[in-house]
Amino acid sequence: MKTVGIIAEYNPFHNGHEYQLKKAKELTGADYCMVVMSGDFVQRGAPAVMDKYLRARSALMCGADLVIELPVPYACASAEYFAAGAVALLDRLGVADCLCFGRECGDMAILSEIADVLMSESDEFKNALRFYLKEGHSYPKARNHALCVAAPQLTEHMDVLNYPNNILALEYLKALRRRKSSIKPYTVARHVSGYHDTGLNASYSSALAIRESIAVTNNIDHIKAQVPDCVYKLLTEHYLKTFPVFPEDMSVMLNYKLLTENSDSCGFTRYFDIDKDFSDKIKKLLPDAVNYDILCDTLKSKDMTYTRVARNLLHILLNIYQSDIETFRSQDYVYYARLLGFRKNASALLGAIKETSSIPLISKLADAASCIRAAENTYSEAGLKMLGYDISASHIYSIMLQNKFKREFMNEYKEPMIII
Asked: Which CATH number fits domain 3-105+186-245+332-419: 1.20.144, 3.40.50, 3.30.70, 3.30.530?
């Protein structure tokens, strides 16, 4: 039995994702495809456009055999932490033979060479990086210049770092190497549309383009060609009932959180990835920023991108503390695998996971705490804290749905696992 892993957000699931699922099995010769997917919040520092259960169901209907939730501290973190957490989860389950991920351009040889330089962190690279940062360059530009200094032969390939999927690909490679994992990496080139493309193409558009097109129209008819037929049917059933959700839908909760903590002498520095300068900047701007987008746009700078600002604000809303992230990282990142759904014909894969996994596979949330305590005696406290983050994030998302669509609160403990 051979299994390929995919790390994804599916925000929302579209034709390109279906293509990748099929291509992953074809490239690797895998019998099963296991997906590690972000929950209700995603890496760009925003709520997912549709909840994790709808996205997991979409994946299972279109080629995935099993979907596991990526814990929220990694799902809404930088590329490095996102990749490290997801790769650790796949690795500790013990059944993934390979990992398949997307790239915009370049080939595996070039990506591997760049990853080697970044992994080595030679004095030449570190000195050059410090120099260019002091010169006022943003971190991505300073890193590119430092790479050219440390490895001049890569100069003509620096454009590959201008694309988000390539950056994630590098982090996946680094995470696999740090773990000395036996998982073999494979890449699939993005099909037609680029990650940041905002216009809809004939049938292969980016998730960003699809989200933006939904945001500016009063229906979803125009995205029918962009998603598999079964997914479109699912979307129409849930349109204006549980989806779409946009970043501004969390503005009220975020403003409340920021305003109630604004007088705290410690500021916001206890939250993940927030330094004193950024904390002071938030306090200075409040309460003038009236919504999420305006606040992010006002807080961004040459040294801090809009996306990083958004992630930091999300860390505050979700109460993700720097000290907890450091603990999780020191204890091998993950403590459990939360199963969102699976296909009935993947029973052999589930059986293999139960035999090989070094962390508990959680299928029923009510049993999660006892499973974590039994499996991780030394680290159970941290494991329970991570689980608490996931549950809290889902309930915060549910409050957004409740407020926007006037629906009942979705209690995470009562949500059934998806079986197809």
From this structure: 3.40.50
